[in-house]
Amino acid sequence: MSNQTLPLNDQIYQYLLEHSLRETALMRELRELTLKHARARMQIAPEQGQFMALLVELVGARKIIEIGTFTGYSALCMAQAMPADGKLICCDISEEWTSIGQPFWQRAGVADRIDLRIAPALDTLDELILSGEAGDFDMAFIDADKTNCLNYHERCLELLRSGGLLMFDNTLWGGSVADPADQDEDTLALRELNQMLHRDQRISISLVPIGDGLTLARKR
Ligand code: CA
Fold this sequence. Notes:
220 residues, alpha/beta, Rossmann fold, 7-stranded mixed sheet, 43% helix, 20% strand, globular, binds calcium ion
């Protein structure tokens, strides 16, 4: 066996789920409801949600910002892993998408931990910085419009405390980032993000091949 990451075929993936996934019935209900949505591909994989929840526990995160909430599955995963007085600020531009997740946040008993801001995320991030919350956040999950990733990165670095953790979703983008023939606008943006993260000495990084690629970056 070579010392590279194991490629997952269906059989191995099923094994992974059967032997590690602890998704509650409520989480599954939200995930399956979202699968019927036209933009279902924007939902994270369940094992990724569980991984992110574990990271929330490891970091001991009490204050998190999420950029790109969609129907709320990742927010549910993270909020459930936070302490009761934790605060998760969710940024999205769609009332329609986020309204699908809100009843599930209520039913899970974590709605009071979630502060949903319907606005362009850059506006919300700038407001947080202006209101003196720079350095206050323990974690950030960036999973929105890919062409703004570098802007989100700079603002989130400012909002994060030293030792805080950034998570960038879709950094493998279905493999497109590794295909030079793919010149799609989002692919180019993610390629530029990956190059920048690789070089950025303000952070320690790991590109984790879970879901569609999740880059972890710890602020030094
Ligand atoms: Ca995503």
